Amino acid sequence: MSESEIDAVVFDVLGTLVDEPAGLRAGMRALAPSLDAPGIERLLSLWQQHIEDEQRRVLDGARPYLNSDALGREAARLVADAAGVDDPAAVAAMALSGRRLPPWPDTVAGLARLAERFPLIGLSNASRTALLGLNAHAGLRWHQALSAEDARTYKPDPAVYRLAVTVSGRPPERLLMVAAHAWDLRAAQGLGLRTAYVSRPVGDPPTSADRFDLYADDLADLADQLDKADGLSG
To answer: How buried is 29 (Cβ within 10 angstroms: 0-12 exposed, 13-18 middle, 19+ buried)?
Structure first.
């Protein structure tokens, strides 16, 4: 696959470009400073499981759509209860920790490099407001940032990926979806997008049955592969 075959690059954000668990752990340490590392990990698992379960219930039609801010407030209350914290201000601060996520070391430079050659579209399950905050905090560069909130559902619903297709004005096969989550790429692939898996410590690795267009160690490696492919085709 060469650069000339791609008109825009679409990026997952949470986990792919920012270290979501690290940001949440920081929020939990602020919520309950006396907790040890295993205690923090238990709270992190509680948070992640609630978000995953409730997004699935929205996708299955078992509950009405709620954006990521509302689900984050629910998760924060669960975490605070488990930690024995009943300070409303502390719980509210915990709920907002999903907007203060650190970028991976290669993210900012990698986006800047790719942005010189492609329109970049962020596509996230984070709400519009949360996406604005985490983009600013992590220093993410976009030409367009899209929230699943605009489709009133969550990835992997095809309606979310259609947002990027519609905004780009290009056929799905002219878009490259980049993610650290194989489930995310499979869904994009189902709609006809090209796919690139980027390895992250917190991602969902591909299985032997997956066939993505590119596999990269980080964003620099992804950019190198696109450079090389374009050179071979030229």
So the answer is: middle
